[in-house]
Write a structure and sequence with these properties.
Structural class: alpha+beta
Largest sheet: 4 strands, antiparallel
Order of helices and strands: EEEEEEHEEHHEEHEEHHEEHHEHHEEH
Helix content: 40-55%
CATH topology of the largest domain: Jelly Rolls
Shape: elongated
Distance between the termini: 34 Å
């Protein structure tokens, strides 16, 4: 049954199915994680996160109504699933004692009723403009939720983590106990923040069939992020540290050049011509105007132009401190847009 022809690979972010799609197959997760959710207004309601060894799509099989997917599912990380057509599962069910079938269908009906009640109580990810009271979009993870999740990850690992090769580590189940069971944080949203932390190398997730291990690479960096994020979300919009996507992309290349050249002075000078050429080769025309936010936030000073050569004075220490923090906020914004 688990032959190669039945295995499907989903890259991170790919949708397996949408709510309302025809259902003719159930799946077993062979490797990875899937997120279940339902659209609601301009946002969505998070239902669950399923991992290696768990089954998905079985509710449609047991549903007495026409077989339609009751929610949507997408891959949170690169995922492999085994497809089992309903016709194949029918043959397996045919060999089961009728009394056991009755119990299974009863349990499924009760589970569907309970899920319906939970979904009715869950809030959507709608983004509200509180000055007008109108919905203006959707936020998968709201700022308050992000702050709660970052705090819980940091405090749980700091308080209960064990030393693993000089770093603090905590089992995923223990983290979920605190985050989801005790502090009532949403599992899918916590998973997304963990994946962002992994992308930023703030932590490492050692994946295991029984229980993943969360290893904190830099506790001080997470604490700095927590303090910065909390401070930023309480500021009025005109006081927040804002950097456009184009400016952020340039600053990332600038920081890359600083590290390549191992520059250590407080103020360093980076040639812009090479950086602008890099983006031009990618079909993006960057100009000095794109650095306005960098100047406003005191990351850089006015560009020095000498003939055809453009040189950018950079406040190295400030850029090295804040750019990784801004990167988290940019990634979180991207996730909300997705």
């Amino acid at each position: 049954m688990a032959g190669s022809q039945n295995v499907k690979k989903l890259p991170k972010g790919e949708v397996l199915f949408h709510e309302g799609d025809a259902a003719k197959v159930l799946y077993i997760i062979q490797k990875g994680q899937l997120r279940l959710y339902r659209p609601k207004g301009k946002g969505h309601v998070e239902i669950a996160v399923l991992r290696t060894g768990e089954v998905i799509g079985e509710m449609a099989y047991f549903d007495k109504n026409p077989t339609k997917r009751s929610c949507s599912a997408s891959a949170m990380i690169d995922t492999e699933i085994i497809e089992i057509p309903f016709e194949v599962f029918n043959k397996m069910m045919a060999s089961i004692n009728p009394w056991i079938k009755t119990i299974l269908y009863t349990l499924v009906d009760r589970l569907k009723t309970a899920n319906g009640r939970i979904k009715a109580l869950d809030s959507s990810s709608a983004k509200i403009d509180y000055s007008t009271g109108k919905q203006v979009g959707a936020e998968f993870i709201k700022p308050t939720q992000a702050a709660q999740i970052i705090s819980t990850i940091y405090l749980s690992i700091k308080s209960h983590g064990k030393d693993v090769d000089g770093k603090l580590a905590l089992s995923k189940k223990t983290l979920q106990l605190y985050a989801c069971d005790i502090f009532n944080l949403h599992e899918a949203k916590m998973e997304h923040v963990l994946l962002l932390f992994e992308e930023l190398s703030l932590l490492e997730i050692i994946r295991d069939r029984e229980d993943d291990l969360i290893v904190l690479n830099d506790a001080d960096a997470v604490k700095t992020l927590l303090v910065f994020y909390n401070a930023e979300r309480h500021l009025p919009d005109d006081k927040k540290m804002k950097v456009s996507k184009r400016c952020f992309a340039i600053l990332e290349k600038v920081l890359e050049k600083i590290k390549e050249k191992k520059l250590t002075d407080k103020t360093v000078h980076i040639e812009l011509n090479e950086i602008f050429t890099f983006f031009l080769n990618q079909g993006k025309k960057m100009t000095i105007v794109d650095l306005e936010d960098a100047n406003d936030n005191d990351f850089t000073q006015s560009v020095i132009i000498d003939g055809d050569v453009m040189t950018l004075p950079v406040n190295r220490q400030r850029l090295e401190k804040y750019l990784p923090l801004l990167k988290f906020m940019h990634l979180l914004e991207q996730r909300n847009e997705q």
